[in-house]
Design a protein that fits this description.
2 copies of one chain form a homodimer. Chain A is an alpha+beta fold. In chain A, about 45% of the residues lie in helices and about 20% in strands. Chain A contains 9 helices and 8 strands. The first copy, chain A, has a 6-stranded antiparallel β-sheet with strand order 5-4-3-8-7-6, with helices on both faces. Chain A has a two-stranded antiparallel ribbon with strand order 1-2. In chain A, helix 5 packs antiparallel against helix 9. The radius of gyration of chain A is 22 Å and the shape is elongated. The interface between A and B is large, with 56 and 56 residues. The structure holds a DNA duplex (30 and 30 nucleotides).
Chain lengths: ~250, ~250
DNA sequence: GTTGACTTCCCGTATAGTGGGAAATAGAGT
DNA sequence: ACTCTATTTCCCACTATACGGGAAGTCAAC
């Protein structure tokens, strides 16, 4: 099918405006469209309140209807939506699956994932929940809880999932401290034998952790020899980029 | 000038989608457009990431580019932008000016206002700041501060602006309590003789007060005889509507 | 398998968008 | 105040572009 030209162009303009407010001729330059075309499109966008004028002058910026539409997206969907392109980028770079988790009581709930391109890959956990102490995302969440909440968590029974699962409160406390320092957590085969995983926090504008970004793969190839830190940095970097995207928003 | 049809229609679709995600035929029904047209527009919107498909199926919802564009709007502008239509509505109903304030230290900073249609009207305070204790918006902000912050505020010197200005800490404390109970504050000629004003809080998703909505007018006609409560309710209602619009957003 | 609801695709038509250029307006410099 | 330039607004003839009816394809339920 063929894309509707005026819509493509209109969104091109909106995209420019989301970087900087601008006038007609400036937009004409950046988009390469004739001024008359830009003027007409802006007029239409203004009528639909997708853009508004700055102080009555002919300097345009993103308008109310865009804000309203975006606010109709619920927080989880919003996180997913904002993260989507970053997830794709991460999977491309690492070659392993990347996903998002949100806290749900004492569990991490997985809300989305992009699978690795490898033929051998880990099942998609989207829609399921796992206890916080066995997955790196969980440790990340715990690391941003108040001490007393963490203590309450540690008092409740912690199941062992594999021989390597750490369930000792003192060891978990230690991991939490480390998570705060490093900004990421690696766990090796603690949830399931043969799976390694790394996670980093995603923050909202207020600095609260609203979700986690993780990447995981089969332990025989992930992480590759002495690549742990490189991978972790990449994951943290992507997580910040996602935070940034959610970012400025109220 | 004539509005570009496809843009108008595209935003009609986006508007529908911001209420509910939907498929092609449903949108065709709600917008009154032929399915082929809806399909083509959606295809274009999808390519620009203004919409995305829910789970790969052909159920569409608001997409990443809308969220990204909205997040590029800074919080103050965002508040203004989101509030604009509500402000207009309020001015229409009350016939008096309505405006927005944000906290700035111990002052309220006015970021926007729509003037009353009356020939006799109050000057536009946009861009200026006033001490919290003399304007109702200020009392609203104080009412949502922690006790100790309020006490610190009350310890700093409070200027008198008119004979009616209340500067006694105990009276201000009392007003703060009342503000919390009622959700609004009326002040009569405390900032300037001949001006009465009422304000209510605007909250973000997390329940924090990010701004205030106020309405003010000359004391000889505002508030009209025994209309105080009606007006206050209207202002509170509008403030909630604005909170709602900012609302769900992260 | 059959039915019905929905989506995708095709293609002829003409409407609706386009862009060049002129006119009007705003802004900067002297 | 006046000129010169940059920018926006308006007009209009042209045809590229969006349109929508309808057919074909897909999917799900029964």
């Amino acid at each position: 099918m063929k894309i509707v030209q005026s819509i493509e162009r209109a969104f091109g303009i909106l995209h420019e405006l989301s970087k900087n407010s601008a006038g007609i001729s400036e937009l004409s330059r950046t988009t390469g469209l004739p001024t008359s075309t830009v003027a007409r499109l802006l007029y239409s966008l203004e009528k639909t309140e997708a853009v508004e004028r700055e102080g009555g002058k002919s300097v345009y910026r993103i308008g109310p209807s865009i804000v309203t539409m975006a606010s109709s997206v619920n927080p989880t969907q919003r996180l997913l939506t904002a993260a989507q392109p970053h997830l794709r980028g991460l999977v491309e770079v690492l070659g392993e699956a990347a996903g998002l988790g949100i806290p749900a009581g004492y569990d991490v709930h997985y809300i989305g994932e992009i699978d690795s391109p490898h033929p051998i890959q880990i099942r998609d956990w989207t829609g399921t929940s796992l206890p916080m102490h066995i997955v790196p995302s969980g440790i990340i969440f715990l690391a941003h809880w108040p001490e007393e909440a963490v203590e309450a968590f540690l008092r409740h029974p912690l199941d062992r999932f594999t021989p390597k699962t750490v369930i000792s409160p003192s060891e978990i406390r230690h991991r939490i401290v480390e998570a705060r320092e490093k900004g990421h957590v690696w766990l090796f085969e603690e949830f399931s034998e043969g799976i390694n995983s790394v996670a980093a926090p995603i923050f909202n504008h207020a600095g609260a952790v609203v979700g986690t970004l993780h990447s995981h793969g089969p332990s025989f190839r992930f992480p590759a020899e002495s690549m742990e830190d490189v991978i972790a940095n990449r994951v943290m970097q992507t997580a910040s980029a996602i935070s940034e995207t959610l970012g400025h928003t109220q």
